[in-house]
Amino acid sequence: MTDDTKTIACLVFPGVDPLDLIGPMQALGLVGYLGSGWRTVTVGARIEAHETEGALRITPSHTFAEVPTPDVLVVPGASTPAFRAMADEHLLDYLRTAAAHAEITASVCSGSLLLGAAGLLRGRRATTHWTAFDLLAEFGAEPVRGRWVRDGRIVTAGGQSAGIDMGLYLVEQLAGTDVARLAQFAMEYDPEPPLGPLDWEQAPHEFFAPLAESWVTDGLTEKPELAARLVARLRAAAAAGQQAAVRQEVGG
């Protein structure tokens, strides 16, 4: 690594969702592979194996202290573990310090809520996983639907697979359209989901609503007041959705 090599740091924390992490990391790692003066590392509080929400165990390549001011910071999410991480002041302090220096601070899925908990989304447009969308306002953000949303130096992506789209967008921002196109071909990223595109009017809110509540309450046992406020937002959003559905049915 030369002195002018820039660093992309991808956050690892206990219970991280592996696709949230690996999707954008794979895309961004190709920036350096294609010779554009970047390196991609993983960072965590300690260099030790971390459980994930999948079958993988991931060991960060560097500690927070070793990469205090990356040029790009990527923050993945999770279900319950992401909310648990909101009580980790060491992690939140790292996000604040790293984001103050970074050219771009990005998140995937509920990673945006970690940015929010660190105070980095106040007054900014942002998105997250659709089940947590109504929680963004608790952290002073303006919730915006989108595969990814950029507001200044902050880029937030929707759930899990949206991190790949965002990762390729970031490749384009860092290294140009030609490199981003090469990266997309290298990944053979041309998705054709077997059931077709999602119909958001048919989103199974009734299935996921109790899960989302459990992620909040199980993860925020050390911050019960915040947990209560977030659960209240989830319930208010669910009630509003039910009322809208009734009005639509009656009107139809």
What does the secondary structure layout of this molecule look like, with pairings?
Blueprint: E1 6-11, H1 18-33, E2 38-44, E3 50-51, E4 57-58, E5 62-63, E6 72-75, H2 80-85, H3 89-101, E7 104-107, H4 111-117, E8 125-126, E9 142-143, E10 148-151, E11 154-157, H5 162-175, H6 177-187, H7 205-219, H8 224-251
Parallel strand pairs: 1-2, 1-6, 2-5, 6-7, 7-11, 8-9
Antiparallel strand pairs: 3-4, 10-11
Helix pairs in contact: 1-5, 1-6, 5-6, 7-8
Organism: Nocardia mexicana
InterPro entries: Class_I_gatase-like, DJ-1/PfpI, INH-QAR
Domain DJ-1/PfpI: 6-173
CATH superfamily caption of the largest domain:
Class I glutamine amidotransferase (GATase) domain
The CATH class label of the largest domain is Alpha Beta
Query: What is the count of β-strands?
Result: 11
Strand content: 15-25%
What would you say the CATH architecture of the largest domain is?
A: 3-Layer(aba) Sandwich
Major sheet details: 7 strands, mixed
Which whole number gives the mean pLDDT? 93
Low-pLDDT stretches are 243-252
Radius of gyration: 18 Å
Query: Based on CA inertia axes, which overall geometry fits?
Result: globular
**Approximately how much helix is present in the residues?**
40-55%
Helix/strand class? alpha/beta
- Spatial arrangement of strands, main beta sheet: 5-2-1-6-7-11-10
Task: Using the coordinates shown, work out and report the CATH topology of the largest domain.
Answer: Rossmann fold
N- and C-termini, Cα separation: 64 Å
